[in-house]
């Protein structure tokens, strides 16, 4: 029986998972919260959270959203923590993210890639791909959000409204506090850009 050799991408993802876990642990300790308290707030199990903090388990975007809310941040900020630190540069210089760059990670409903470097920004853009047909749990946060579909057909479910089918070129904007979730409308792979406001200072996400 042969053992698969880890690829370079596997190693990069493992390093990102480790950095995200370390960042979650640091934020939790800074907030003076125990793992048990975070588990009670998020509804996630204590053993799972421990595995995430040690970099042994990779959290889904929904799980990251729950962890982020418990720690007073956003799942995108936690995702950005997985990126290697970048050299200091002039804040006025343009920020360029090449195709192979940007913090990313595979999740239960696809893959998300942050389209800016870690750090303060007016908004948080994500590239999102997936082929999941299960809507899963709702995301909900205080900030407004916008998405546009680049390829595939997406079923967008906004809590309390009839689900919308969106195709290439279609977009949606919804206010903060709106429960939202999405999936492939027909089982084919979709590709979209999601842009969320950055939480305002003093406002807990």
From TrEMBL:
Report the Pfam families cross-referenced here.
Answer: Cupin_2, HTH_31
Q: Which GO terms describe its cellular component?
A: cytosol
UniProt GO MF annotations? DNA binding; DNA-binding transcription factor activity
Protein name stated in the entry: Helix-turn-helix transcriptional regulator
Q: Which SMART domains does the annotation name?
A: HTH_XRE
The keyword DNA-binding belongs to this UniProt entry's keyword annotation:
yes
PANTHER family attached to this UniProt entry:
HTH-TYPE TRANSCRIPTIONAL REGULATOR, METHYLPHOSPHONATE SYNTHASE
Give the matching Gene3D superfamilies: Jelly Rolls, lambda repressor-like DNA-binding domains
Top-level lineage group: Bacteria
Q: Domain HTH cro/C1-type: where?
A: 24-78
Keyword line: DNA-binding
Q: Does the keyword DNA-binding apply?
A: yes
